[in-house]
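Re: [ENG-882] Designed sequences occasionally contain unexpected residues at chain ends

Forwarding the minimal case from QA. Structure tokens:
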């Protein structure tokens, strides 16, 4: 009888002690776009990706009034700024990956002339897990300061 009572109570006791792990989702924050000083030249987009509980990979950024957006790896070599296109960017679990001036960024080619400072451009971020986020990114002119709260100030 005592064994039967323990057998009945034990699963409930174990369930009460077991805390469910909270799954954190990946997120895209602080997105903004800087237009080029020369009309017709590419603009640049900057943003922060906060990794969730599982790793993921950024595979594409797009926007409706932009012909093409390429992910670029930026850096310095021999004192000169460099950049090269990259196909994707791994986002390890529980990390923050920043796309910022002087570092990784997205290049926006063929930006519609209607995209002017002061508007917000809807950037769509696609990940390898097929998650997609649309983020409203403030647009600034070439000589304008970065938007407040962008992390680039």
């Amino acid at each position: 009888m005592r064994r039967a009572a323990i057998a009945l109570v034990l699963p409930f006791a174990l369930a009460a002690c077991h805390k469910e792990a909270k799954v954190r989702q990946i997120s895209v924050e602080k997105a903004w776009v800087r237009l080029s000083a020369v009309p017709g030249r590419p603009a640049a987009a900057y943003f922060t990706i906060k990794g969730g509980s599982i790793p993921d990979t950024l595979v594409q950024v797009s926007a409706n009034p932009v012909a093409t957006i390429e992910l670029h790896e930026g850096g310095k070599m021999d004192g000169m700024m460099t950049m090269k296109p990259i196909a994707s960017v791994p986002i390890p679990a529980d990390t923050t990956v920043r796309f910022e001036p002087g570092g990784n960024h997205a290049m926006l080619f063929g930006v519609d002339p209607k995209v002017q400072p002061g508007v917000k451009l809807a950037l769509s971020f696609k990940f390898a897990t097929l998650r997609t986020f649309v983020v409203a990114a403030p647009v600034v002119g070439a000589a304008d300061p970065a938007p407040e709260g962008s992390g680039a100030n």
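QA comment: On inspection the terminal residues look reasonable. Residues 22-140 form a domain with the Immunoglobulin-like fold (CATH 2.60.40.1890). Proposing we downgrade this to a documentation issue.
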